Amino acid sequence: MTTTMSKNESKLNVAGTEVQMWSGGSGPPLVYLHGAGGTSGWQTHHEDLSQQYTVYAPAQPGFNGTPRPDWISTITDMSHFILEMIQVRSEEHTSELH
Fold first, then answer.
1. 69: which DSSP letter?
2. Band of residue 94 on the pLDDT scale cut at 50, 70, 90
3. CA–CA gap between residue 49 and residue 26 (Å, rounded)
């Protein structure tokens, strides 16, 4: 993976966990979840998507700058955390993420 730029790097507090988040672009919101290898920041594919969308690219729990809460031990737990993250982000920006 090649990092093209840092874009807007921020932290989002989700249930007491500070989530490392990159965002950029304009248009309808889009959440981009990385694969099992983690993420190394804002990538060329994020930049491409940001031409049409506002892209939110979080480092999921246990990757990069986001610690894994002890209660996350299954993919179902991770799904609940991601849903909470989207809800927190949505509340902060008063728009629903897809």
1. P
2. low
3. 10
Provide the 3-class DSSP secondary structure of residue 91.
helix
Q: Find the length of the chain.
A: 98
Backbone dihedral region for residue 68 (phi beyond 0: left; psi -120 to 50: alpha; all else: beta) = beta
Q: Give the CA distances from residue 37 to residues 21, 34, 40, in Å, rounded to whole numbers and listed in that order.
A: 16, 8, 9
Q: What percent of the chain has pLDDT over 70?
A: 88
Its pTM stands at 0.82
Tell me which H or E stretch contains 46: helix 44-49
Identify any residues that bridge with 8 across adjacent strands, giving them in sequence order: 23
Q: Per the structure block, which two tokens stand in for 5? A: 């730029």
Q: What is the pLDDT of residue 96?
A: 44
Burial of 21 (0-12, 13-18, 19+ CB in 10 A): buried
